[in-house]
Amino acid sequence: MLLSVFILLMGLVLLNYGSDWFVLGSSRIAKYLNVSDFVIGATIVAFGTSLPEIITSVYAAYANLPGIAVGNSLGSCIANIGLILGISAIIYPIVVRHNSVLKNGYIYLIFTIVAFILGYDGFGFIDGLILFILLLGYIVHTIKNGGTPTVEEEGAPKKISMTTAVIFTIVGLLSVIIGSELFVDGAKGIAAFLGISDKIIGFTLVAFGTSLPELVVSITAVRRKLGDIVLGNVIGSNMANIGCALAFSGMISYIPPVKFEMNVNLFLVVLMVIYMSKNLILDKIRNKKVNTNINDKTNLEEYSKIGRIEGISLVLIYMIFILKISNIF
Length: 329
Hints:
Number of helices: 13
Strand content: under 5%
Shape: globular
Order of helices and strands: HHHHEHHHHHHHHEH
Distance between the termini: 26 Å
Helix content: over 70%
Structural class: mainly alpha
Strand order of the largest sheet: 1-2
CATH topology: A middle domain of Talin 1
CATH architecture: Up-down Bundle
């Protein structure tokens, strides 16, 4: 038992530090390649923070542990909305100021509905392939609509070199790969010792552990009042979790249906989108015309705010889900 805990913690350390190094290195490479900050945040950073989920789920599927594979990928999506977005909103209310953020939320909702339909009877190779192709379409759309490259300000702090960025990227990737193997093996040992199914371990311990990078990034962003980054990180990471982690797992090994968990995930996504656009919905109900021009700063507050009450509700739903999945009630 103690050895399994030690192995799990070592894997968790490698996963978190490795993902940080990967994000730092890959984002710097993107800068050298003249890619905009928007594209970096929506693709590289989101995928970088989801790298632990992707690698861990793929390895779990390869190790014939479908419960950990789906629990990690889908459980991380639930944790990202219920726990991470909820805690972030409690720390500081998240104001949705940009129309592009709302559009990403709607795209993610449609993507989740498709995944819900495909996974009703479990995820197989074709299901995973469809989800991955849809994710590629989202990436292409994001890159094409990502704006112009950012010009660094004169006198800005000196950044790491291209060589150093490549080293960070490679070392980070290797750390995540090794860490995922240790993390899954440790979780498997703990589950066997406690007599708990790999599915419960996957949706609780593994999902929370691999969501730590998103938690750190989101809390840092919300403290700086960068709500769009929080939402972008949650949406982008969750799409990567489903379109890569869950999709690749299904292509490697059949994933049995998890209808209750899929229902909870869909409910949280719908709730998040409602919170993101609640002011627009209320204005339409009241038949009020809303100016959605994002360049008009006088109308920025016309968009919604995910406040502390909404944050508390998300955390409570997540806690109820954990209690239910753990068979506590």
